[in-house]
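So, can you check these tokens?
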Amino acid sequence: MKKTLVVGTGYVGLVTGTCFSEMGISVVCIDVDKEKIENLKKGILPIYEPGLDILVEKNVKAGRLEFSTSLEDNIDDAEVIFSAVGTPPDEDGSADLQYVLEVAKTIGRKMNDYKLIVTKSTVPVGTAKLVQQTIQAELDKRQISISFDVASNPEFLKEGDAVNDFMRPDRVVVGVASSKAEEILTRLYRPFLINNFRVIFMDITSAEMTKYAANAMLATRISFMNDIACLCEKVGANINMVRKGIGSDTRIGKKFLYAGCGYGGSCFPKDVKALIKIGERNNFAMRVIKAVEEVNDDQKFVLFNKLNSFYNGDLKGKTIALWGLAFKPETDDMREAPSLVIINELLKAGCKVKAYDPVAMQEAKRRLGDKITYSNDIYDAVVNVDALLVITEWKEFRVPQWSVIKQSMKKAVLFDGRNIYDSNELKKEKIEYFGIGV
């Protein structure tokens, strides 16, 4: 039986390859980063994702999951090649496709029989056509004719719950241009969807657009609620009550209606920018999506502005505690995280910053070095501080011992960037409380 290759061992590639191997498929995950591959062979993962380390260890031991630095050496053994390499934002906000097209060139140079190349990375509309043209150009240089297919299979994984999402997907979107490609991908995904086969086949262009549209819609809901939250504060309404009121409408639903200090991560910011750029290249202004981005950029300053206002613009010499550094719980991902914006503003204002996060401390040290102080736990973080800012809604932050925290703080004031606390409870504890939109 031929193997399945997954090129790129970042967040998407590693989850994809590992979960396929868990279903009995022989997988080789490939990456040019030699250190990363050597670490993976030792069971050391480059990302934090609950449950993923256990599956990697299990399937490596079973011989179903391998790691390699060479795509060329593995092409002959494979029928399906998933391209899950990075597509970082270019200087103008568009997705950088250099790694995607380099994979395509390598396949075109080395393939000797039929291959199905599946783009798993988030890529702009039209990328599959570029991949097809790139592979064909390499075959033409070799003056040989080999049939191949290109397909689009965008991922919809939630960081922090990616393994569960992949193993029990609510849908799998696949863009194909041939019955053979559809048959192969049906075979690959059937084990995940035996009881309810929810693969949605469509044309490739629509599949590429579906990924951007989905992330843009979720980002829109977040920015919409943050805009409403700011208005709530001005008119004296409570965003939590508004959320319950509109979320009970079945046409709207309850998900992604939480006000906060802005979204971050690797998907929403990058994909919103890329969608705006796709619109520009097609002479169409994505007016709603531009507003989504503007609201989110502004929202990342909201907590700092509240703190600055509380201290009448005099923050110099103040020590501020941060609970949470990752852009969301259950991940160590700090890409585009609100915490980075807030920390930068605090440091510019002359503050000292003490921070704690359950899993993102190493990533924070890599990004920030010794600019801030890293605490051992939530209680260590609040010792002798002038304010506490809650940035990430980790479960372990939900029920702290407020009496201990109040005694430790120089000034008992809390700025809740995720609205996870009851203002009445904190009032009883004589801790001043400021939320978002309340």
